[in-house]
Amino acid sequence: MDEDTLEAEFRLAKSLAEQGRTQEAERRYRAVAGKGHAGAMVNLGLLAVERDEAEAERWWRAAAEAGDDVAMRNLGILKHDQGRVEEAETWYRAAAEAGDLGARYNLGLLFVERRDLERAVEQFQIAAEAGHVGSMNNLGVALGELNRPDEAEPWLRRGAEKGDARAMCSLGDLLYSLKRRDEADEWWERGAAAGDANSLFNLGVRSEHKEDMARAEECFRKAAEAGHPHGEARANALASGFWPNGAPYMPGWF
């Protein structure tokens, strides 16, 4: 096959996979992968990973050896899930150095797990400066944890202004901690409108503080519907006449 034919076959296989015609897709991917198409190798790994991690790893290693950064990142994720963190770091670094921002983000998360926030900041900052929105949030959160709020706030604002609901909530958390509570409420409102469960919960707490129990219960119930682990209990407590009057929930801080 020439290059154009290979690419056409790859796109056809991808379309078949999206339609749920997995066996046909896999057959075509295998044919294209056999001709050295790295994208087909990556996607064969994705098809295989649930049934056979070893097979997925073989395909991703082949693609990684061909220079595919997505395959490198996927190997990092696989190794991390297997508890082989040093290997995960090696693959994340390789992918990040090849320009993969998702791998750079994941490398930052590895350092967060180790409580090495200074090194996490380095990785998140590289990705954030390249436009990775999730890294903007995590960079701001890590800087906040390091007691560098003046540096944290601009990054959280950048992420929030790009529509990241997590960053909206994190910005609200930071502003609340700085006693800029009206501003915090504004960002939690925006996060809540975007469906962020933590923003909804925090608005419930703030409504309790303002003695608006009807709104508090409504926010807690919406938070529960959005997946917040404590939303239902707080809503039920209010419905029973109990007023916990607690502090905002800030799980975003590492």
From TrEMBL:
InterPro entries: Sel1-like, Sel1_AlgK, TPR-4, TPR-like_helical_dom_sf. One of its GO terms (molecular function) is identical protein binding. SMART domains: SEL1. It comes from the Bacteria. Coiled coil: none annotated. This is TPR repeat protein. It comes from Thermomonospora cellulosilytica.
